[in-house]
Amino acid sequence: MKTEAADIPEPDRVPGAPHPRHTTRVIGQDAAAAAFLQAAQGDRLHHAWLLTGPRGVGKATLAWAIARWLLAESGRADLAVDPDMPEARRIAALSEPRLALIRRPWDDKTGRLRAEITVDEIRKLLSFFHLSAAEGGRRVAIIDAADDMNIPAANALLKVLEEPPSDALILLIAHQPARLLPTIRSRCRTLRLSPLPPRQMSAILSDMGLNEDAEALSALSDGSVGEALRLAGQGGLDRYQDLVDLFATLPRLDRLAASKFADGAAGRAGADGDPFDLTITVLDRFVTRLARAGLMGAPLPQAARGEGALMARLSPDDHAARIWAEAQARLSARARTGRAVNLDPAALVMDMVLELAQLPPAQASLTKA
Predict the structure, then answer these.
(1) CB atoms inside a 10 Å sphere around CB 286
(2) CA count, 13 A, side-chain hemisphere, 166
(3) pLDDT digits over 203-218, tens only?
(4) What sections of the chain are H helices per DSSP?
(5) For residue 308, what are the CA distances in angstroms to 125, 192, 253, 316?
(6) 186-206: per-residue pLDDT in tens?
(7) How far apart are CA 120 and CA 128, in angstroms?
(8) DSSP per-residue string spanning 70-86
């Protein structure tokens, strides 16, 4: 049965937050915005821009602000555009004919979003440039996220970048730019966006009404407002607390609690989020923070009750830090593969938890427990 368009989740929207096209303010990324404006106003506007940085720091928000600024031809010295301008209203409604959005498509056969951006989506981009050329004027395409492209899609995009259409600008959003073809990266000008410092993050989250959890969300989101909102909207802090409590049972892992945690990764993805993606995120953050703890000491502020003491026990030195860091890279790759081939989420998470529980630093805590 065909899914209604209104019921299809947007893969480039953080659950619990508005889509970036509806966000008119770019927070804390003044340097990146200024670099673009300097190029645009100096007639040095490159045909392709690669926006990089951690997930949720404002890359998509900046991309949509650039699109509005260009298509509205505001000429302002900043990226602010009146949301009531006709171009801005059409962009918000995804009805602007001079704008194309490329993102992971919906698969009616599986009832899920595809794990990758396919070559068919890039072919749509080629058609957009060809058909919109007759309209004249500036055209903008946003690819979110470019590192979601599979190899055929990446090769198709490369051909576009090698022979860019006139009066066209392509904005590629990449959370992990190393996954892109080097030839794609070399044909783009890069805008690097940085995480926000904890104090600024906490202030922003408090302004958004997240006063009680602002400090923990700031710690767990690594300076990403978007990630903090996603974690808050999906109960990410509770999931992280469950994970900390689970690993506190080491070296004799509580198998029942582990199974319950893994089962929480099951369930269909929807507009409110993806349980599997949330679980992988909190696992990744936990292991990353373990690795940092071995090098820099227990994290402050803590993201969960008992986190500091647990990390001091499981990652007491740089040797343990290296083991956790290697595990993080290994499990991150496994999660991507599992998502691509639709492995059972609960089984995959359970395997990850068991592997982590058997690492030497986790078992070494037996003598210290």
Answers:
(1) 23
(2) 5
(3) 777 777 777 678 888 8
(4) 30-41, 59-72, 86-92, 119-132, 151-162, 182-186, 198-207, 214-221, 225-233, 236-247, 255-263, 275-296, 307-314, 318-340, 345-357, 360-364
(5) 48, 31, 19, 11
(6) 999 999 998 887 777 777 777
(7) 12
(8) HHHT---SSS---TTSH
